[in-house]
Amino acid sequence: MSTRGKADAEGMSSRAGPAVAPSGVRKRRGPLTWVSRDRLSALVFLLPLLLIFGTFSWFPILRSFVMAVQYTNLVSPATFVGLGNFANVLADPLFGTSVANTAYFALLALIIGYPIPLVLAVIMSETRRFKGLYSALAYLPVVVPPVVAVLLWKVFYKGGTNGAFNSILGGVGLGPIQWLGDAAMAMPSVVVEATWAAFGGTVIIYLAALLSVPPELYDAAEVDGSSIWQKIRYVTLPHMRGILFITLILQLIATAQVFTEPFLLTSGGPANATTTVLLLIYQYAFGSSLGGHFGEAAALSLMLAAFLGIFTAVYFWLTRSWSTTS
Amino acid sequence: MNVPFLTRGQPSAPQAERGLVSAAEWRQRRVGWTLRVIHGATLILLLIIGLGPILWLAKAAITPTQDTLREPLALWPNGFDLSLLTQAFTKIHIERYFMNTVWIAIGSWICQITVATTAGYALSVLRPRGGRLLYGLVLATLFVPSIVVLVPLYLTVLSMPIVNIKLVDTFWAVWLPAGASAFNVVLIKRFFDNLPREIFEAAQVDGAGPFRLFWSIVLPMSRPIVGVVSVFAVIATWKDYLWPMLVLPTVALQPLSVRLPTLERGIQLDLFLASLAIATLFPIVLFLIFQRMFLSGGALSGAIKG
Is B277 a domain residue? Predict the structure, then answer.
């Protein structure tokens, strides 16, 4: 209270005295003490933030913790059920399936989707002509709205002999594949579509990172007689380490929350082969058969968020010594 | 008008900076040719992968009925038919869903810009007591996966706390939550932090109050960052699927992204593909206009957001 009064007095005195405070003097609360004295105007400017974040961010985050320990069906008043929702989720046979499917999706996306942008970016950064054309072409799939991309690929994946991919295979005498209808093929098909839709963004990030490799290092490596491969191995990749670690964890976090692709391509089928954790959350809350289980949905959301938080912390802890960019 | 442009158009000097492969290595016959082959192959691959599906969609949109079904990979259409595109307007009224998307984008944009600029101004320039704590609370939401808020947020728009208003089935249900983007607030606040303080002090001497300072000084100076946030806001709306699908069950209010999947079951394939092509056109035009922004690190922030 006393400090506030002091600040006020300072504001008053500076106002009464010379109009501008000497620029060398920095007051504790920024140079504009005369404005911040006007708390009302600051509050007015913060009002949109407080209202919007309060209602649509902070309140729902807190509410998810409350909902996770309640039984809510929107009709009768919510009742406290302790960890019952968590127990229900863990006992659901679909829980294990969805976790395994999500892990499988993340693994496939890692194998198929992670190396492609890096290889492309290293090749593209060495082109001497049409640099812009290369990156524009790589980025084009990112521009296509995800829903359109998924629906377009669904057409390509059509199971009959006249589906686009199957007619390519038919051209070389292979046979129609049930890309989305076969339980073993469905997940790889979903991952290939998701990779197509996302690789361009990562390519652009890597291209920017490649520019930051100091050319002197390449010069030095050549003086030591390095081949192109050795330069990639000992100069380029070590320099990309920091960004590679970041994109890896970002990709893992994103794949753990995959929804649109499996939802629209396969609706989780066939035989729940592509039911991811997010699809299960959706089914708990909004599905036609399971729907209305908001408590279970909140519980599973929190479990996923907690897992991602721990996973990210462990990841950064494990890689702390070798992920620093120099 | 074009004078500065002309001077820029001079043949550029040989690139001073070098990449991975040295000029000497390029001159070696074996290395040079291998690289050329790799680059050519990459370009062809990118043409097939990046442009191919989009060209295929464009072709399907103007190909006579049944042609796409019979021969999906025919390179040239058997004729040229714009009736599918007109049917997309007359039969399924794609313009309605297009306009819904536009309205949702405009509203979300206004909400995001309002929240981000006022909050950025208050936290960066006015710096009220508790501002740092508030900024911390905003930052904290960046680390909460969006899935955590999905279900409680849905229940919130179903019945707003305290005032008990139902937002579901109105555009407000998409507009208002879009404003709660911590990413925007951080971006704008950082930008305001870097504006020269002397200008604010000069405005203060000239007698500008906090509102005048915001409207006449800070906002005009922040045009570049507001532009960046705006483009991302529009793109995010165009891409969003799950949330508008949940809160806009009435078909007449749905944006393209929500309407298209339900169309798939109801209409024949060629008309459906024509609708997909129309829905893709706008983002591609936007990309071609703002190409430089997208391809110079703008994608980085997009990746973090997604």
Answer: no
Which of A150-154, A160-164, A225-229 is predicted with the least confidence, judged by mean pLDDT?
Answer: A160-164
User: Higher pLDDT residue, B201 or A20?
Assistant: B201
Reported pTM: 0.82
Least confident of A162-171, B48-57, B138-147: A162-171
Query: Interface pTM (ipTM) of the complex?
Result: 0.83
Distance from CA of A238 to the nearest CA of B (A): 13
Mutation site for A-interface testing, chosen from B97, B126, B271 by largest number of A Cβ within 10 Å: B126
CATH code for the domain of B145: 1.10.3720.10
Domain that holds residue A94: 86-318
Q: Which of B126, B156, B264 sits opposite A55 (nearest CB)?
A: B156
* A239, part of any domain: yes
Interface of A with B in 100-159 (CB under 8 A): 120, 122-127, 130, 132-148, 151-156
Closest chain A residue to B255 measured between Cα atoms? A147
- At B265, the pLDDT band (50, 70, 90 cuts) reads confident
Domain count, chain A: 2
Structural domains in chain B (count): 2
H-type alpha helices, chain B: 3-8, 23-27, 29-46, 52-61, 67-70, 83-90, 94-121, 131-142, 146-158, 172-179, 182-193, 197-205, 210-212, 219-221, 223-239, 242-247, 256-266, 269-289, 291-293, 299-305
B192, part of any domain: yes
